[in-house]
Design brief:
With about 500 residues, the chain is an alpha+beta fold. Helix content is about 35%, strand content about 20%. The structure holds adenosine-5'-triphosphate (ATP) and magnesium ion (MG) (2 copies). It catalyses: L-aspartyl-tRNA(Asn) + L-glutamine + ATP + H2O = L-asparaginyl-tRNA(Asn) + L-glutamate + ADP + phosphate + 2 H(+); L-glutamyl-tRNA(Gln) + L-glutamine + ATP + H2O = L-glutaminyl-tRNA(Gln) + L-glutamate + ADP + phosphate + H(+).
C-alpha cells in the first residue's frame, strides 16, 4: 500500500493579511480541502406541502495533532505554550525569500487508512443500554501539515500571524455522514479522543487545539436525498460541538420552513451567543490544484505477507507488528472493568469519561477493603458530585485516593457509620492536612463497639417508652424503626442501626 504524499497548491489562499472576512472568529487557518460529491438538492429547498418531518445528517472531519516533539518535515519543537513565532524554522515559514508557502502537504488522495469505523455508545437517560451502541463509518485518515494561525485584533484593525503550528503533523479523520444530532457527534468524538490517548498517537486536548472538529450538517425529509451541507469549522470543545450542531439543525429547518435556501457555506460557532455565524460560502467548485510532491518518497505500509524478506525491521512500517502491540483500547477497558469489579456497564463509561477518574478508582480499589460496588457509588455520586459542583478536575481534588480508600475501609469494618463517613468526607475536603483519624477523633464519630454498653442504652430507651413497646408487641413492626431512631439519638448517631435493630428485637421478644 503506497501512499505518496501530495502537495496541495492553494491559489489565493496564503495567509495574506486581511484575507479573511472581518467577522470571522475562528483563529485557525483552514485545513486542506477534500472532495465529497454534494448531492443536488434543489428540490429540498422547498419542503413538500404537508411534509413536516425532518431528518438531520451530521458528518465530522476531525483534525488530531500527532504526538511528536517535532514538526512533520522540520526539527522545530511543538509546544502549546511557546511564545508566538518562536518554534518556526526557515522551512516552516518557507523562508528565505517569500511569504508563507500557500500550500499544505497532505495525503488527501492516498490516505494512510480507508473504510474504517468507530463504535460508540449513547446513554439513554441516565442508563446505558447495548441497543444504544452506534457505528459511524470512517471514510479515511490522512496525514497532513497544520497551518499557521491568524489572530485578529479588532481594536487596532490588525491581523497577526503565528507560525508556531505551521508544519505540525496532523491526522485528519473524515467520517461519513452517519450521525444525526449533537449528542451522537459529541459521544463519537469523545470515544475517538479516548482511543487516540490510549494509543498515544495524539494528546487530543481540545482546549489546546490538539483536536479540532469541523461539523458538516444538513437536513432533509426522510426518504429524500440528503440536503445541502454547511460546515461549522474548528469546534474546540465537545460541549460546543454538540451545541453548534443542534443549533445548526434547528436553523436550517427554520430557514427551509420559511421558504429560504441553505447555502453550501462555512460557518463558525459563536460561543458567547450560542449560535453559528456565516464565514464564507463554498458554493461553486474550487480547484485546489493538487499535485504530487516530488521531494517526498512514498510511505509504504506492510503486513506480514507483503513484507519483503530482506527488509530492515527498523526501516519499515509493519502493520501486523503494530497491531500485536496495540495497548488496551477504551471499549476493552470498559469490558474488563465490568468483569473485574462487577460494576454496571454505565459505570464503566462514567469512569472513562472523566479524565483521571479511572486511575483514581483503581488506586482506591487497591488500597481499600470496601467492595467495588460501594466504592463506585462513592466515586460517581459523592466524589464526582463535589468535583462538578466546584468545577474541578479529578487531578485538582483535595482528597487523595488513599484517604478515600481509608475512609471506605472504616465504613466497611463498621468503625464509622455511613452518615459519619459523609461528614468526614466533607471535613477532608474543607480542611486539607487533617487525617481521617484526626477528624473521627475530634468529632467523636467512631461507632460504639461495646456490646454491653449498647444493650444498656437500648434497655433504657425501652424502659422509657412503654407505649411503643406495647405497640410492637401487638404486632406494629413500624414502631421498631421509631425505637431505633431513639437509640441513635441517645448515642448521638454513633451506633450502627443494624446492630441496634438486632439488640432491640432480642430485647422485645
Ligand atoms: N449532505 C451532507 N450532510 C452532512 N454532512 C455531509 C454531507 N455530505 C458530506 N458530508 C460530510 O462532509 C465531510 C466532507 O469532508 P471532506 O474532507 O471530504 O471534504 P470538504 O469538507 O469539502 O473539505 P475540507 O477538508 O476542506 O473541509 C465528511 O465528513 C462527510 O461525512
Ligand atoms: Mg476535510
Ligand atoms: Mg470540510
Amino acid at each position: 500500500m503506497a501512499a505518496p504524499i501530495l502537495r496541495c497548491a492553494r491559489a489565493g489562499r496564503c495567509w495574506s493579511l486581511g484575507s479573511r472576512p472581518r467577522r470571522t472568529r475562528a483563529l485557525f487557518a483552514e485545513p486542506v480541502p477534500g472532495r465529497v460529491r454534494e448531492q443536488s438538492s434543489a428540490a429540498l429547498q422547498e419542503p413538500r406541502p404537508g411534509a413536516h418531518e425532518w431528518a438531520a445528517v451530521v458528518g465530522l472531519e476531525i483534525h488530531a495533532q500527532i504526538s511528536s516533539n517535532s514538526k512533520l518535515f522540520s526539527g522545530s519543537q511543538v509546544s502549546f505554550l511557546a511564545p508566538p513565532n518562536s518554534s518556526v524554522s526557515f522551512f516552516d515559514a518557507s523562508l528565505p525569500g517569500t511569504l508563507p508557502a500557500g500550500y499544505q502537504i497532505t495525503q488527501q488522495r492516498l490516505p494512510i487508512a480507508v473504510n474504517g469505523c468507530l463504535t460508540y455508545s449513547l446513554s439513554v437517560g441516565a442508563h446505558w443500554s447495548p441497543s444504544a451502541t452506534k457505528t459511524v463509518r470512517i471514510k479515511q485518515i490522512q496525514l497532513e501539515q497544520d497551518s499557521g494561525k491568524s489572530l485578529h485584533d479588532d481594536t487596532r484593525s490588525q491581523t497577526l500571524i503565528d507560525l508556531n503550528r505551521a508544519g505540525v503533523g496532523l491526522m485528519e479523520v473524515v467520517m461519513e455522514p452517519d450521525m444525526s444530532c449533537g449528542a451522537e457527534a459529541a459521544t463519537a468524538v469523545r470515544e475517538l479522543q479516548l482511543i487516540l490517548r490510549a494509543l498515544g498517537t495524539s494528546q487530543a486536548n481540545m482546549a489546546e487545539g490538539q483536536l479540532r472538529v469541523d461539523a458538516n450538517v444538513s437536513v432533509h425529509h426522510p426518504g429524500e436525498p440528503l440536503g445541502v451541507r454547511t460546515e461549522v469549522k474548528n469546534l474546540n470543545s465537545i460541549r460546543f460541538l454538540a451545541k453548534a450542531i443542534d443549533y445548526e439543525i434547528q436553523r436550517q429547518i427554520e430557514e427551509l420552513r420559511n421558504g429560504g435556501k441553505i447555502l453550501n457555506e462555512t460557518r463558525a460557532f459563536d460561543e458567547k451567543l450560542g449560535c453559528t455565524v456565516s464565514m464564507r460560502d463554498k458554493e461553486g467548485k474550487q480547484d485546489y490544484r493538487f499535485m504530487p510532491e516530488p521531494n517526498l518518497p512514498p510511505l509504504i505500509l506492510y503486513d506480514a505477507e507483503s513484507l519483503p524478506t530482506a527488509a530492515d525491521p527498523q526501516q519499515v512500517v509493519n502493520i501486523d507488528w503494530i497491531r500485536e502491540r496495540l495497548p488496551e483500547l477504551p471499549s476493552v477497558t470498559r469490558g474488563r472493568l465490568v468483569e473485574q469489579y462487577g460494576i454496571l456497564p454505565e459505570h464503566s463509561f462514567a469512569l472513562l469519561n472523566e479524565d483521571g477518574l479511572l486511575e483514581f478508582f483503581q488506586t482506591v480499589m487497591k488500597e481499600t477493603r470496601a467492595e467495588p460496588k460501594k466504592v463506585i457509588g462513592w466515586i460517581l455520586s459523592t466524589f464526582l458530585g463535589y468535583l462538578k459542583q466546584r468545577n474541578l478536575a479529578v487531578s485538582e481534588s483535595p482528597i487523595s485516593p488513599s484517604s478515600l480508600a481509608e475512609l471506605l475501609s472504616l465504613v466497611d469494618s463498621k468503625v464509622i457509620s455511613l452518615p459519619a463517613a459523609k461528614q468526614v468526607f466533607e471535613e477532608l475536603w474543607q480542611n486539607q492536612g487533617k487525617t481521617t483519624g484526626q477528624i473521627i477523633q475530634e468529632k467523636k464519630l467512631e461507632l460504639l463497639q461495646n456490646q454491653e454498653e449498647l444493650e444498656e442504652i437500648c434497655q433504657a430507651v425501652l424502659a422509657e417508652h412503654p407505649q411503643e413497646v406495647m405497640a410492637v408487641k401487638k404486632g406494629n413492626q413500624k414502631v421498631v424503626n421509631k425505637l431505633i431512631g431513639m437509640v441513635r439519638r441517645a448515642t448521638e448517631g454513633r451506633a450502627d442501626p443494624i446492630r441496634i435493630k438486632q439488640i432491640l428485637e432480642k430485647q422485645l421478644q
